[in-house]
């Protein structure tokens, strides 16, 4: 387990503050861009854009996943030109980093002044009513990784960030969820294309087995992904308000699959069996379809987030 000292956080913060223009010294809105969603930074006022590759910032580790370019970007978002900091590409446990390394940028955002954090992700649907391309506003989460001690808050507590035992029953701020729905409807997203539900965090990098998927569905999960929750835990520990948005990029296979014994009995003429289960060998999740679905929905998500920033700014300025 890697534990990061308060001195390291301050070193990273001071590095950024020295290089940032004064108008970005107190950035109140932060956005983490999930798989394939980094194009959001193309919507900001390009004349205001300042970016830092993760590898140039003390304390940051680098992102190694396709669709995650790995840079911290500052710029004005929306018509009201809200100063915003973006994580373009996140860090995952499955890349070999500790939970503390994965969430290091969130605490830097807190030091920079961020009060509201928006976390976005691509995920698979467990809920059969959800379809590929739907957006989901997260209203709660299940964290299997945190329950198995992969928790960024384990270790010495840094009191300057937050308390030893933070509650997370209110992890996803109700008022922000309402703003997200309003932004979606005002930008033309159909009420049938945006949902609300429970996000489950699995550490990855493998996609879930069929039995695991059925288990997650049974315990109340609507979608499952490999990120987000550890960032939310650190944000809430630091008293940041949080909005979570998921883009559904694939259905998760929950079927039991074809029965090999029945198939062989039928082939040998011993029994005549009709097996109507799907062939799970033909239905598999893959990262390419995640990126494709993200690209197809990118413009809608960008419009939603731009409008959300304006609505947020009106309520918080």
Automatic annotation (TrEMBL):
Q: Which UniProt keywords apply?
A: Glycosyltransferase, Transferase
Could you confirm whether the keyword Cytoplasm appears in this record? Answer: no
Family matches, as Gene3D superfamilies: Nucleoside phosphorylase domain
Database matches in Pfam families: PNP_UDP_1
Q: Cellular component per GO? A: cytoplasm
GO MF: purine-nucleoside phosphorylase activity
Output the InterPro entries linked to this UniProt entry: Nucleoside_phosphorylase_d, Nucleoside_phosphorylase_sf, Purine_phosphorylase
What is the top EC class of this enzyme, as a single word?
Answer: transferase
List the transmembrane segments.
none
Which domain of life, per UniProt? Eukaryota
Q: What is one GO biological process annotated to this record?
A: nucleoside metabolic process
Location of the Nucleoside phosphorylase domain: 28-264
- Pathway it belongs to? Purine metabolism; purine nucleoside salvage
Its EC number(s): 2.4.2.1
Q: Which residues bind phosphate?
A: 35, 68, 90-92, 122, 227
Residues the entry annotates as binding a purine D-ribonucleoside: 208, 250
Q: What does this protein do?
A: The purine nucleoside phosphorylases catalyze the phosphorolytic breakdown of the N-glycosidic bond in the beta-(deoxy)ribonucleoside molecules, with the formation of the corresponding free purine bases and pentose-1-phosphate.
Show the PANTHER family listed in the entry.
Answer: METHYLTHIOADENOSINE/PURINE NUCLEOSIDE PHOSPHORYLASE, PURINE NUCLEOSIDE PHOSPHORYLASE-RELATED
Q: Which family does it belong to?
A: Belongs to the PNP/MTAP phosphorylase family.
The entry's protein name is Purine nucleoside phosphorylase
Q: Which organism is it from?
A: Phascolomyces articulosus
